[in-house]
Amino acid sequence: MPKLKLGLYWAASCGGCEIAIVELREKILDLDAAAEILFWPVAMDYKYHDVEAMPDQHIDVCLFNGAIRNSENEHVAHLLRKKSKVFVAFGSCAHTGGIPGLANMYSRQSIFERAYFDEPSVINVDKVLPQTSYAMPEGQVNIPRMYNTVKTLAQIEDVDYFVPGCPPQPPQIWNVVEAILSGKLPPKGSVVGANDKTVCDECKHTRQEKRIKKFYRPHEIIPDSNACLFDQGILCAGPATRGGCGALCTKVDLPCRGCYGAPPHVVDQGAALLSAAASVADASTEEEAARIIGEIVDPVGTFYRFGLPASLLHRTRIEPR
Amino acid sequence: MSENHFEPRIVGFLCNWCTYTAADTAGVNRMKMPPNVDIIRVMCSGRIDPEFVLKAFALGADGVIVSGCHPPGDCHYSNGNFKTFRRMPLLETVLAQYGIEKERFHWGWISGAEANKWTQLVHDFTEQVRTLGPLDWQHELASKED
Predict the structure, then answer these.
(1) Half-sphere exposure at residue B105, Cβ-oriented, CA atoms within 13 angstroms
(2) Distance separating alpha carbons of residues A93 and A99, to the nearest angstrom
(3) B86 with A107: Cβ contact below 8 A
(4) Which residue of A has its CA nearest to B133?
(5) Fewer Cβ neighbours under 10 Å: the N or C end of chain A?
(6) Residue A180: closest CA among A16, A12, A10, A30
(7) Which secondary structure element, helix H or strand E, spans residue A64, and what is its range?
(8) Which of A278, A317, A320 sits opposite B87 (nearest CB)?
(9) Is the CB of B49 less than 8 angstroms away from the CB of A107?
(10) Strand order in the sheet with A35-39
(11) How many angstroms separate the CA atoms of B75 and B71, rounded?
(12) Judgement on whether residues A286 and A163 belong to the same structural domain of the protein
């Protein structure tokens, strides 16, 4: 049997998804036995022109991690889609935008001003900003253009499968690899390497009726290890997040951050979490409700921590009138 | 319709037992009001998922109204409106972070007997949104990318 031809790529991401693949540990030898890696910029020295030289659909499976932040990300996404039979959005950033997606609360201009002018460690007297094209004595130099809005992979390309997680958990990655090798793949568009229930379903903490008088941020409270963190007033994304990670964060008494994305049948993860958080406030008057709810800091950043680009509104308005 | 003429498109999520009844009464009594509010009847204002409001804005609404029974005692299901007054202030904060003006979103209470209050709200809110101009979220997203 010929080896499975595998391609891996990172766009706007941190490299954690590649670490997760290395975290397969000794199973990585099984992966190597079953698959031939044709393209993996993080680990191996291949260039874009090597991919361009491949015939179409030459790669059997491409695991694409990272959000679409600039023109290079988008270019390579289109290229790899053309060269791959199965194209997988791998990890939170490719799936829902991930942490880079929080930049959708700002515009490109305000990000540039912050990074190149206002940072305390930056001295930029001439107010130089990156240019996409610059004439040097040796010739024209071009760099990718940064977009105003971070996009998910599926917003710019046709994606076959989604593997959620920041990063996807190694046992789940192995399940996906096995499914690919055995040819037992679910219908196109499915989320694989995750469960159909929420994180609460896998969580060790005991739930009771929620009556929250005060919301705490994780550093403001030492939680009880047996009781539900949400019951204790810690904003936990568990009820609005797809399971499959094994409730890793709540296992160590940290609230779920929501990296596996919305559970099935939920369109907007942030709205679901907003609804869950607000409706358990123990308030019987409007004033009391406003006081308890008012303690939640940065609701968009909290509720959409991993999914702002995939949300209904995608981003904040660039110039509010 | 000329290009410069703007008619606000407003979505109103009204609870069956109070505000929808008020809107119905206003209609039956032929009370005059602008035709800009598209009413979606829900059984309880506590059924209004914040997702509904976000989706309305995402799909082109210029303004959204959420209205139910007066708390504490008017709710047909005894405390559905409690859910509303816990969720809506948080949704207001979220909308503000998204850059949607607070004048585009109204939530409150109108009982079945307050048809006048409903027509007044429709008048005032329509004019308020008209002053702000179109929101046109999809166009807003597309036009800012180059």
Answers:
(1) 20
(2) 7
(3) no
(4) A321
(5) N
(6) A30
(7) strand A59-65
(8) A278
(9) no
(10) A35-39, A4-10, A59-65, A84-90, A161-163
(11) 7
(12) no
Name the burial class of residue B41, with classes exposed (0-12), middle (13-18) and buried (19+) by CB atoms within 10 angstroms of its CB.
Answer: middle
Q: How many domains does chain A have?
A: 3
Whether A210 and A294 map to the same domain: the answer is: yes
What pLDDT is attached to residue B145?
66
> Cα separation of B99 and A110, whole Å?
15
Average confidence (pLDDT) over A242-264: 93
**Token pair listed for A28:** 């990585």
Find the domain containing A231 and state its range: 199-303
pLDDT over threshold 50, residue A132: yes
The overall average pLDDT reported for chain A is: 91
Q: Are B18 and B74 in contact (CB under 8 A)?
A: yes
Query: Per-residue b/e over B80-101, b at no fewer than 16 CB within 10 Å?
Result: bbbbbbbbbbbbbbbbbbbbbb
Identify from A293, A298, A318 which residue to disrupt to test chain B contact, counting B C-beta atoms within 10 A and taking the largest count. A293
A147 contacts B86? CB cut-off 8 A: no
Q: At what angle do helices B115-132 and B19-28 cross, to 10 degrees?
A: 100
Contact between residue A305 and residue A102 where contact means Cβ atoms under 8 Å apart: yes
User: Are A238 and A164 within one domain?
Assistant: no
Provide the 3-class DSSP secondary structure of residue B81.
helix
Which residues of chain B carry a pLDDT beneath 50? Answer: 1
User: Does A293 lie in the same domain as A164?
Assistant: no
Structural domains of chain B sorted by starting position, each given as residue range(s) with its CATH number in brackets: 10-141 (3.40.50)
CB A54 within 8 A of CB A38: yes
A149 → chain B, closest CA residue? B145
pTM: 0.90
- Reading phi first (left if > 0) and then psi (alpha if -120 to 50, else beta), residue B12 is in beta
Q: Is residue B120 within 8 Å of B34, Cβ to Cβ? A: no
| Confidence tier at A321 by pLDDT (50, 70, 90) | very low
Which residues of B have a CB under 8 Å from any CB of A?
A: 49-51, 54-55, 57-58, 71-72, 82-83, 85-87, 89-91, 93-94, 97-101, 132-133, 137, 140-141, 144-146
Q: Would you call A65 exposed, middle or buried from its count of C-beta atoms within 10 A (0-12, 13-18, 19+)?
A: buried
ipTM field: 0.88
Query: What pLDDT was estimated at residue B3?
Result: 60
Both tokens of residue B12?
């109103």
Q: What are phi and psi of A212, to 5 degrees?
A: -105, 120
CB contact (8 A) between residue B140 and residue A277 = no
